[in-house]
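Structure (tokenized):
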């Protein structure tokens, strides 16, 4: 067993070497924090959630069966805790699904976006992502930014793969509309 494998450290912790868990914390703290931040929006809340996640993971380490990657199991703990927190807040979002975009507007936006610098493109994508509901942000982040497979996202969220595909499709559509609105305003301000 290689010392870089998660299972090496998991087994060490199970055998009583509590210090071995610090390797797992160091390896995954940024990923857990990023996921929590995408959902909760506030750095201090995300930090607290990340700490809580690692405490729960340590306490439940014996229940980790190794059927999925350790990171997937950890994401699942983070996701479920964040969703529980968000349900307490009961935030409602305005639906963007019903809006229509003309072909001409779509082409203008596409042309403008193609001409923008990479940094600006990332800025607009992040702004659009931030305006999505938290659960959609998580799905988009896990799939596109964290390169998780549909099956892994299903394990993390408890959603079916087909449901995830639909939600990601709708989230991309919402992001497209949001990008259109942002870039349209930008185009008009330049003209």
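Design, position by position:
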């Amino acid at each position: 067993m290689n010392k870089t494998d998660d299972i090496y450290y998991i087994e060490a912790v199970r055998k009583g070497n509590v210090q071995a868990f610090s390797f797992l914390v160091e390896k995954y703290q940024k990923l857990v924090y990023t996921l929590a931040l995408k959902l909760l929006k506030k750095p201090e809340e995300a930090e607290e959630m990340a700490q809580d996640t690692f405490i729960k993971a340590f306490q439940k380490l014996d229940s980790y069966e190794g059927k999925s990657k350790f990171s997937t199991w950890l994401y699942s703990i983070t996701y479920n805790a964040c969703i529980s927190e968000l349900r307490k807040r009961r935030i409602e979002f305005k639906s963007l699904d019903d809006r229509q975009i003309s072909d001409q507007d779509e082409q203008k936006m596409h042309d403008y976006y193609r001409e923008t610098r990479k940094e600006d493109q990332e800025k607009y994508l992040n702004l659009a992502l931030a305006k999505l509901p938290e659960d959609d942000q998580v799905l988009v982040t896990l799939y596109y930014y964290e390169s998780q497979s549909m099956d892994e996202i299903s394990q993390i969220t408890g959603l079916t793969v087909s449901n995830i595909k639909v939600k990601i499709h709708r989230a991309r559509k919402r992001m497209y509309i949001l990008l259109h609105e942002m870039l349209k305003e930008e185009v008009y301000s330049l003209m």
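Reviewer-requested clarification: Residues 103-190 form a domain with the Arc Repressor Mutant, subunit A fold (CATH 1.10.10.10). The radius of gyration is 20 Å.
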